[in-house]
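User: Can you model how flavin-adenine dinucleotide sits in this protein?
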Amino acid sequence: PPSRSSVVIVGAGVSGISAAKILAENGVENIVILEATDRIGGRIRKEVFGGVSVELGAGWIVGVGGEVPNPVWELAAKSSLRTCFSDYSNARYNIYDRSGKIFPSGLAADSYKKAVDSAIEKLRNQQETDRGGDFCRDTEPPSTPKTPIDLAIDFILHDFEMPEVQPISTFLDYGEREFLVADERGYEDLLYKMAQDFLFTSEGKILDSRLQLNKVVREIQNSRSGVTLTTEDGCVYDANYAILSVSIGVLQSDLISFRPSMPRWKMEAIEKLDVMVYTKIFLKFPYKFWPCGPEREFFIYAHERRGYYTFWQHMENAYPGSNILVVTLTNGESKRVENQSDEETLKESMEVLRDMFGPNIPNATDILVPRWWNNRFQRGSYSNYPAIVNHQVVQSIKAPVGRIFFTGEHTSERFNGYVHGGYLAGIDTSKALLEEMRKEKERNSQNQSFL
Ligand code: FAD
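Assistant: Here's the modeled complex, given as structure tokens:
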């Protein structure tokens, strides 16, 4: 193992890479990045499926078209990454029932409005309770959805972020448009481009000993004079500082042990965050049998069980002729399918599709089911701050503990859960660390002149 470094960065996802880049640009050359898997990218990951490149993790650049440019959109422009505008606004008018009929648009609109009103009401009540007030003495409690269409709408409203209920910083700052990445180089190309700026690469491969792949950090010792990290394969890395970019799910798990253990305020803050699981299941068909015209990219299946294969997308806009459908599951349903065989999931998907499009549609010839929840280096898809959370929790999540600094999408107060959140968090954390290094240097030189 290398001798003592200035900074060890744990994790080579977007936040780890952006943190490392800022350090390198500011003259901190002596860094090491330890990454558990055999690649950089983390939750940005493509795979070739059915002849095209699909994104198993982050798929969209979210927040485009506003006054302030989204930094990730700028990176994409620099790479000429191929993207495709996604128009969600019509999804709610393409809701199928179990007999394959589309709900009349008036009914769908009413149900949507009811769901939005009830969500706003619920949020207001929560805010009142949070302030210690009495609420709702004279009004009915918001109704809970029961019919398939109400359940389907409740699902898209809450398990996907819909700005109708609560303003979303990403949309406020960067705009409300979303673009699907549809490029054979993958979303991860942005990370390779960033890495190339400071790591040695040849023929598209990173060949730089500062990036150490297949290094699973299992223990971090934090002392007054430095940090010591031990990996699963028994390597030991000494450094002045560590930046930890692993996901909130990993922090909540016991993958990494800390000596001394993390202070209570830190643990409590980490436990407060919810981990969302978001699963895109890809299905390949011999030919397409779903409608493809304008405003048909997204469609919804209404079932008595909430979240049961509810949200569908065809990939014809991104890759014409690819004959691929994507269905998105979340949380409980995600965990359920992660724990069953792909054949089982294929069977369930086909039953749902036959409900919507009739018995004569062809079987899917291939299926891809990502497993973010059962992945011990992820333990979920992204962080979710509960609707009412005080500013202090975010501060505690990002606050350093001794010589360990924290980064990752979950440390971004405005943009957690997004690629740009991770990217900006990496920059913020490195800037804070550079400031700390400057102060330490100053303290040391004062001590020396005193002696
Ligand atoms: P990560 O990418 O998780 O990086 C952390 C790294 O740490 C990983 O590479 C991991 O392998 C490594 N690691 C973990 N444990 C250890 C260890 N013990 N030792 C060493 N290394 C370790 N965002 C969007 O903007 N748009 C989207 O459309 C979108 N959709 C998403 C869909 C899915 C299915 C998922 C999973 C995420 C989605 N996101 C989306 C969120 C986005 O992907 C993340 O916010 C972002 O990529 C997180 O980057 P990060 O650097 O914080 O974490």
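A couple of observations from the model: The chain has twelve helices and 23 strands. Residues 419-450 form the longest helix (32 residues).
User: Helpful, thanks.
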